[in-house]
User: Fold these one by one.
Assistant:
Number 1:
Amino acid sequence: MKRALLFGLFLLLLTPVKAQEEGTADFSPIFFPELKAELPNEVRETSGLFFHNGRLWTHNDSGGKPILFALDTTTFEVVQKITLSNAKNKDWEDVCTDGERVYVGDFGNNKGKRKNLRIYTFPLSAIPDSGDVTITVDSIRFSFGDQTNFVYNKHEHDFDCEAMFATDSCLYLFSKGWATGTTRMYRLTKTPGNQVAEVVNGFDSQGLITGADYDRKNHVLVVVGYVKSIWKPFMYLIFDFDEAGVKLSNRRFEMPQLTGAQTEGICFFDDGRCFVTAETSPTMTARVFVVDFRKWIDKELKK
């Protein structure tokens, strides 16, 4: 196992940074993301991403301080911090924006027994152009409508969650299916208070979904994750997403050269290109990559 992970890291160091795709309609294309930088130790557990005001925003996961960090997209150094004054970071797993508000998901549930899942939210306009600031947030508290068993069952259940995205009207979550390797998509309203997340769809993800983002202009979803135990990252593009959650036509992309990377966050930063971050793992430091989906998105939109 260790030899395989080290070999994956060796391939990463030898791989050209130019993106490549291989495969046919019957096979998953292989992507070689462009390595942009190692990330500062301050965000070594980067777990979610969104893009705003020319900066990449991220956060650490369980047990960290309730802080969002802005990274310069040239140096990838921390240049700004937003502290959520009335929030805790029990297990922050993703962050997203709908262009009006920011949503921070404290819903990591590795053990399957959490009953205090929540999403913190505040206006995007509360983030200043520069300088650190403290913001008071609202909370959406929720439970999964189909979960009835809350017995401790670490990494052997399907009610963990690490991926969230926002449309103009709703929030959507993808489950992290430790037991089955599949994912369910849940829907919530954006109204603070208590809610029950309803299942609207799902698919056989063949791995653990850990991050998501939505291109509202082109109605394209992107999700990232990795295969359990072997830590082999993958991504999906999901085309023609509709608010009913009916359409989940997807294409999978493999990233075998990143084997051993714990890919956690993904976000669009322009039409068809995404940042992807991986937190520190046993085989590599925290890093940020760029993937270019423009070829695939343009092809799909022209159908």
Number 2:
Amino acid sequence: MYHSMSTPDHAEGDSSEQSTKELRYEHPSGWLYLMKDSSEGLHLIIDTLLSASDREFTKSELAEAAGVSRHTVRAHLGTLLEHGIVQAVANGKRYQLNLDSPVTQEIFELNSAINAVGAGHVTIESDTGTVVDE
């Protein structure tokens, strides 16, 4: 499981030898813990599951649909299961997005908010980050 984020002032040991990035990885937030390997395809797997939320996948089918290797799916499946984003079905041979998970619901909310901004339904003030128009 992940640990709560600690700032360099609260980190144990000699922080002068560790970069801020190293300290962030040593004491990750929940978001960083989930996305720490996103360059390895996790973001593509989640995006695929979001776009096919009613579908069940084998590891191979998920890999093909996400455009990643089966190794990448296997590498991230434990994290997805651990956080309840994915659930095993068909005696553990298939996987699907866990629509009842609070984490999955938050991912849907974040995705919807980003889509609303991108589609021009919501305007964000670029200097302050506040909503100007809904």
